[in-house]
Predict the structure.
Amino acid sequence: MFQQPDLDLELRIPDNGTLNVPLIGSVAAAGRTTNSLEDLIRTRLAADFLQSPSVTVTVKEFVKRRVFIVGGVAKPDAYELGPAARMTVLQLVAAAGGLTDRAMKEAVQVIRRQGGGERILLRLPLGEVESRLALGKGDGDLELWPDDLVVVPTSIRTAYVLGAVNKPGSIELPPDRRTTVSMAVSHAGSYTKFASTGNIQVLRRTENGGARHVVVDLDAVLDGRLDLDLAVEPGDVIWVPERGIF
């Protein structure tokens, strides 16, 4: 704010996308360009408080935008995106060193967070995508959103435990004994202190290629409700969400 040092601010935009600016109160920042935000603040200040205010908005730091890949790739890990960068599933697979010889490329899944924190499962047969690209059709390769998780199943019996656990990643499922959600979380180093253990989400592919979403209350399981401890199947993705701090 030119010549208004008391109004010079450095603010972090919270999850709700709204800034609290002195004099004018709440200002919706999410979805706006810096120029648009300047105009909004300038207009509201000029309406009741300052004469011809000069407002400049700049971005000091962008939040990290990451995508994740686990399973049958050479380097499963989190990969950071630039503020305006775009990445597709095939590009992420390439960044992760390519598929391993045990990868099941026709069963690749993308786990995507929706509003309210719920996760959905998208199926993406990479063989079909590659065939379309060979024909010059680039629409088959899915563009990733920040926080997307790409799961590349392998021929080994594995499931994936992710989210608020101490050792996220894949676990091997023994063929001769039952593995439950509580056991899988334990294999992943148990849950962290911020885990929402009453709302563990299990994402499972169905026979017709769709997705089934099951919620497991681990608190109830640990209190003795063993009947609620879901048996894990190969390819399952177990997501342990974080609870709200406030």
Residues 5-48 form one domain.
